[in-house]
Specification:
The complex is a heterodimer of chains A (about 290) and B (about 140). Chain A is about 60% helix and about 10% strand. Chain A is elongated and about 115 Å long. Chain A is α/β, with parallel strands linked by helices and about 290 residues long. Chain B is an alpha+beta fold and about 140 residues long. Chain B contains two helices and ten strands, in the order E-E-E-E-E-E-E-E-E-E-H-H. In chain B, strands 2-1-9-8-5 form a five-stranded mixed β-sheet, with no helix packed on it. A five-stranded antiparallel β-sheet of chain B has the order 4-3-6-7-10, covered by helices on one side. In chain B, a hairpin with a 4-residue loop joins strand 1 and strand 2. Chain B is globular and about 55 Å long. Classes of the chains: A alpha/beta (about 290), B alpha+beta (about 140). The interface between A and B is medium-sized, with 31 and 26 residues.
Chain lengths: ~290, ~140
């Protein structure tokens, strides 16, 4: 049986931990609002972009563009898991990394070589620990604003796709559903598939194109890839904050339970001490009476 | 009266969405005036000013690089940056432009990409400045 002092110390330490988890939960909740706003705000851009691409590909066959060119026998594939820099966010990183591992074992047959270039410190650490084949250090390209990061990454990935032996690029990221749920999504970024723009409504097919269709397509496609990366980054950030909020909320609740249990134990220990003391006094008095 | 619905969208927000009677766009090939009933058109945009005649008078925006699609009675403008005249700090923009121009002229960039990005940013900043200068001129 631990002494009264030991229990008191534990209660104090749990209370301190609870203060931290509570603060982290509040911070995550406040940031989450902003992050989900950013996700919602970025959706019209992606939507309009798809509509425009649909209109262009209506008028001209986009598959002649090199970004659509799928290799006959794809050999090298670049996988980009989007993870967080910090932990204490529940299963956020674990699910991404599990998916990454699953991808490596599932797709290994299809691709001769899968190169992993993680984003985020957690992914980088994972890749180093498990000794995956590391590609270019994309993590170092990150900038303060997601939009800038997306632009740089898009340029880099398109360049890798066109000018190196990379035949396909995949993103693995968490899609934000709610603070409680995140969906892990594996998105094929490159090569593009023409079918992804097919769902357009009755777009007029007699567009005037300035400058020309090909030039327009060449300008639009990298921007489209950029918008997809940006969406993934924003979704991932919102998911991270949501996951952290939930995890910290649970931690705070667990701490409360623990404090309650320890307090009970502490009171019992104190009572036991008092009882023993009383017994000693009364038995001493009895003995004196003798 | 026939109207156009104009939408200006950036990666981070919908900067403008309203009905207008005419729109002027800074197309790469040249300035474009769009009136209701325009033929379907798709164009790339260069940094410049988008002007829209709305029920509350003319609205102007300094935009960056992007695209525009005119289809039916909707005009969709997709740009990497968009600022209204009142959200631009002229002094700040001027300082930023001077700094960018200095960097470009002394070519203190490690990679070609950084230089390209600086050149693009300078063009965007110039478009913002042009809008502010025009706005202040009309006020006096």
């Amino acid at each position: 049986m631990p002494s009264l002092k030991d229990i008191r110390n534990r209660v104090r330490s749990v209370k301190n931990t609870q203060k931290i988890t509570k603060a982290m939960k509040l911070v995550a909740a406040a940031k989450l609002r902003r992050a989900t706003d950013a996700v919602v705000q970025s959706r019209p851009y992606a939507r309009v972009m798809r509509q425009m691409l649909a209109s262009v590909s209506h008028a001209t066959d986009p598959s002649t563009n090199p970004l659509f060119a799928a290799a006959d026998a794809p050999r090298t594939c670049l996988l980009v898991p989007v993870t967080s820099d910090r932990g204490l966010c529940g299963g956020f990183n674990a699910t991404i990394l599990r998916q990454t591992t699953a991808f490596l074992t599932d797709q290994a047959a299809g691709y001769e070589r899968i190169v992993v270039s993680p984003l985020g410190r957690k992914g980088t650490g994972f890749a180093r620990r498990t000794q995956l084949k590391l590609g270019r250090d994309l993590d170092a390209l990150r900038l303060a604003r997601h939009a800038d990061t997306a632009a740089v990454l898009a340029r880099q990935l398109v360049d890798d796709f066109l000018n190196t032996d990379v035949d396909a690029v995949f993103l693995v990221y968490n899609q934000f559903v709610s603070a409680l749920t995140q969906n892990v999504v594996t998105l094929q970024l490159l090569p593009l598939s023409a079918s992804s723009f097919d769902e357009v409504e009755d777009a007029p097919s007699d567009f005037i194109f300035e400058p020309g269709q090909q030039e327009l397509l060449e300008a639009l496609l990298p921007k489209y890839i950029e918008s997809q990366i940006l969406a993934a980054l924003l979704e991932s950030e919102a998911s991270e904050l949501g996951a952290r909020m939930t995890a910290m909320d649970n931690a705070t609740k667990n701490a409360s339970d623990l404090i309650e249990r320890l307090t009970l134990q502490m009171n019992r220990a104190r009572q036991a001490m008092i009882t023993t003391e009383l017994m000693e006094i009364t038995s001493g008095a009895e003995a004196l009476k003798g | 009266m026939a109207t156009l619905s104009l939408q200006i969208v950036t990666p981070t927000e919908t900067a403008f969405a309203d009905t207008t009677t005419s729109v002027t766009l800074p197309g790469t090939v040249g300035e474009l005036g769009i009136l209701p009933g325009h033929l379907p058109l798709m164009t790339t945009l260069k940094p410049g000013t988008v002007r829209a005649a709305t029920a509350h008078g003319e609205r102007s925006f300094a935009v960056g690089f992007g695209f525009a699609e005119v289809s039916g009675d909707t005009v969709r403008v997709l740009v990497d940056a968009c600022h209204g005249a009142d959200s631009i700090d002229a002094a700040h923009a001027k300082a930023a432009l001077a700094e960018l121009e200095r960097q470009i002229s002394t070519s203190e960039f490690k990679t070609r990409e950084e230089l390209d990005e600086a050149t693009r940013e300078a063009a965007r900043t110039r478009a913002r400045l042009a809008l502010v200068e025009r706005a202040t001129k009309t006020q006096h």
